[in-house]
Amino acid sequence: MATPRSNLATLKQPLAIRSDCITPQQTTLHVKQDLSWSNGDFTAKNANGAVILSCDGKVWSNSARKEFKDASDLPLFSLRSSWFSMSKAWRLELLGDGHMIMAVRPRWSLGKVKLDCTFRNVASDGEGQEVKLEVCRQDYQSLVTHISCGESKVASVERVFDEGKAQNWLFKPEYKVDVAGGMDMALIAVIVIIMANIIQSR
């Protein structure tokens, strides 16, 4: 099994869409797909097993809509898919007013599908600097994926894959994520869930 061996430097400037979810030092995040009718429910937990956020897939949504809640079950975001340049793209919005928090768009680079995730950094001064994260798989099976900001790697994602268990329709994948200090764990969890949907739809 491919395993990320990451020693991630703490960010000089924290990056976040939720400042209360920033980890002060490198940590591990676990994102698990839950058994559900929508096949789109997920739970993200920190290294101690505490819930960071949960994701509910909407069964009859034609935009593959998902809603995110915090650990106390309060609503956070809504994720909707659309079509951009013949490929599926996503919008992460505040629940209620529809204000866009992050845009996620696929692109091809050197034969690989990458994701560009653009958002306003709420951990920066002033109105919030626009930041772009790049998501790039490191192998054909997407067992390891890197998330970077410029030249800095901010997260490394391992897809836990068991060939035998995968034959069982009840089996749901899990992702183990090394997250750099100064990074928003909720932001990384949302990106991993989008990745999981891409892998699932292939």
Describe this structure in words.
The chain is mainly β and 202 residues long. Helix content is 8%, strand content 46%. It contains one helix and twelve strands; from the N terminus they run ββββββββββββα. It has a twelve-stranded antiparallel barrel with strand order 1-2-3-4-5-6-7-8-9-10-11-12. A hairpin with a 4-residue loop joins strand 4 and strand 5. The chain is globular and about 45 Å long. The chain starts with 26 loop residues before the first strand and ends with a helix. Mean pLDDT is 83; it is low at 59-63.
Keywords:
mainly beta; 202 residues; twelve-stranded antiparallel beta barrel; 1 helix
Strand arrangement within the widest β-sheet reads 1-2-3-4-5-6-7-8-9-10-11-12
> What gyration radius follows from the Cα positions, in whole Å?
16 Å
Extended strand count: 12
- Any idea what the shape is? globular
**Biggest beta-sheet profile:** 12 strands, antiparallel, barrel
Order of helices and strands: EEEEEEEEEEEEH
Helix content: under 10%
Oligomeric organization of the protein chains: single chain
The proportion of strand residues reads over 45%
Structural class: mainly beta
Average pLDDT value? 83
Low-pLDDT segments, ≥5 res: 59-63
The helix count comes to 1
Distance between the termini: 21 Å
